[in-house]
Structure formats: C-alpha cells, structure tokens
Amino acid sequence: MVEVSTSILTVEKGEESKTFFELEAGKTDYFHIDVMDGKFVEKDTYEKMLEYASYIKRISNLPLDVHLMVEDIKSAIEDFIAVEPNIITFHLEACKSKEEVKEIIDYIKQNNCKVGIAIKPETNIEEVYEYLPYIHMCLVMTVEPGKGGQTYLKDMTEKINKLKKYIDENNLENDIEVDGGINLRTAPEVKKAGANVLVAGTAILMANNYGEIIKELKEEIE
Ligand code: DX5
Ligand code: ZN
Q1: List of domains in the chain
Q2: How far is CA 104 from each of CA 4, 22, 29, 96, 150, rounded to the nearest angstrom?
Q3: Is 179 in the pocket of ligand 1 (CB under 6 A)?
C-alpha cells in the first residue's frame, strides 16, 4: 500500500498551523521533517524543523518521518528523539565507517524509533544492501538533497527498480521511500519501480485541495 509523507520544508511563514491542520485533514500519512545543518547541505533548517516538529507533536497524532541531512547525526538524533518520531532516517554519506553506520542504527533503535538510511543520487544502491536486514526503510533521494522544488532525476527510476529487486530476492521487508520532485507526473513511474512511501513537498503544498492530490498520489497503479 502506497503512503504519502508531506515535506513541510517549504510551508509558508505565518501559514504553518493552518497548513498542518489542513494536511492532517487531507490524510497525509506522515509529516516529513527535513532537517538540514548548513554543513551536510547548504541550507540550515535545524531550529525551524525542531520547532515545527514539536508543534505538530502537540496538535496532531500523525507520525513524524524525520530526514536528517546533517553531519553530526548523533546529536541530531538526541534533539529529535524528543518529538518521538515514527522513524529517523540518516544519510549513509555522512558516516565515516561501516561501524559508525551500525552504531547509529543501534542508537536509533535503543531510542524506540524505526530506522531509515538515505542515499544521495550519486551513491550506488549496492552500498546500502548490507544494512537492509537491520533497518526499516531505504530513502532513495530523487533529487540532490538540500532544497525543495527540484525536478525528479529520471536515472533514479532504475535505482529504485534495482533496490526493489534486491529486497524481493532476499526476502527482506524494507519500505522504499522516494524524496524529491515527486508529483502526479512522476508518481506512477516511482510506484511502478517499487517505491511505497512517496515524499512530496511542492506538489502538495501548491495544490488547492491537499486531500485530492494526496489521494491521487496514493492511487495504486494498475
Ligand atoms: C530535499 C528534501 C525533500 C524536499 C522535497 O533535500 O529532502 O524532502 O523537501 O520537496 P519537493 O517535493 O518539493 O521536491
Ligand atoms: Zn526529505
């Protein structure tokens, strides 16, 4: 079953609570919290995302899908675990060793939270295979991480296909999340390739009717 995780990165200043309530009414499955530290990626959204996540926690029961685009993963986990997210996803490229990856996986689990690993467009999908048995979700970035409103990178479709094939052939159960440039035009392609959690920011926040676009994004492909 396909789920939608709405990225709140580009929520309009002053419209935050109205937007969050309308997204909940529109039946988004998750709020996607894009945490950027100004080092791993240029933008710094750290404090803003912590504020938004804390606010959403107070007003909604919907789960938080935290996407860490940070160098200091451990301290970000400590900060964001406070808002009791459903899942915390960190970037493989921010880790200096396999041991560190395994340590972070365990650390997130010890904090009673699901674990995701995100990979940038230029990272080979094979690099995540060895961790799949220990994590819940793989986030395949379909744009270069760092900002919203970019165009879907078509080369990523083959990468999603390969990941889905590997998961099925190895009887694994990981969710495949795609993030960046997902809209009504690109959604059918990524779902067909095997993605089952779609992150969308611009496509949803620009729509007049959040419920309508979320419903269409979730539509099963025939
Ligand atoms: C980019 C973020 C994405 C982005 C998605 O670094 O991880 O979640 O905000 O936004 P759209 O859907 O506008 O590409
Ligand atoms: Zn994201």
Answers
A1: 3-218 (3.20.20.70)
A2: 26, 34, 25, 11, 29
A3: yes
